[in-house]
Amino acid sequence: MNAIEANNLFKSYRSVQALKGVTFQVGKGEVFGLIGPDGAGKTTIFRILTTLILPDKGSARTDGLDIIKDYKEIRTRVGYMPGRFSLYPDLSVGENIDFFANIFGVTLEENYDLVAPIFRQIEPFRTRRAGKLSGGMKQKLALCCALIHKPSVLFLDEPTTGVDALSRVEFWEMLASLKETGISILVSTPYMDEAARCDRIALMCEGLILEICPPPARLEDYFIELMTRNG
Predict the structure, then answer these.
(1) Mean pLDDT of residues grouped by 10 in the chain (231 residues)?
(2) Hey, is 122 helix, strand or coil?
């Protein structure tokens, strides 16, 4: 069983067609990347697969469950980290973690083995307000909150945009560790060096998937050539 199955997804926002028949699958334990410029439809895919919006046409399954019929169960099984920092800036690091743990009816201690590598880095700032953290620490806190309930599938929408180079490297090292636990990861990124660390990638442009493949050598040149060939 695949972790994610998207079949012929269409979505429009008034006159803008965000998705034009998107189909792809993510295997269990796979790190799968969505690569493309702004407006390619990546965030729309995330929102559909995490049951935040409905497609106009097509179907999808997340962790084997239908996104429409089983939306409540899906929300207990996935972790979602949107592109913009979405935690509570006026709450402390510890208060944010406790808040999200309470939502899912768990405690930090229950799933500490999963979040420990991340939590140890943010624990010295436990009493600091989340809004006062650096960009890299905000992302680590957001990832910790997304993992607090031990999800089966993790969705990361451009998680390192605007973060310094060292923090980006550290973040992807954490993702490599998470993959070893069996978590399936769907990630979007504008950085070609990050895309190269995925098992497979979907190259997207204007609501279409141009190609799905393992990251090729000279990925940026390959993507530009692919976009040129497809007009």
Answers:
(1) 96 95 97 93 96 97 97 96 88 94 91 89 93 90 93 94 85 90 94 92 94 89 82 67
(2) helix
78 vs 26: CA distance, rounded Å = 14
Asked if residue 162 lies in contact with residue 100, where contact means CB atoms within 8 angstroms, the answer is no
Half-sphere exposure of 50 (CA within 13 A, CB side): 23
Walk me through the domains of the chain, giving residue ranges and CATH numbers. 4-229 (3.40.50.300)
- Nearest 5°: the CA angle 149, 146, 162 is 170
Strands (DSSP E) found in the chain? 4-13, 16-26, 31-35, 57-62, 65-66, 78-81, 153-157, 184-188, 200-205, 208-213
Task: Compute and round to an integer the Cα radius of gyration of the chain.
Answer: 17
- Residue 195, helix vs strand vs coil: helix
135 secondary structure, DSSP code: H
Q: Judging by beta carbons within 10 Å of its beta carbon (0-12, 13-18, 19+), is residue 172 exposed, middle or buried?
A: buried
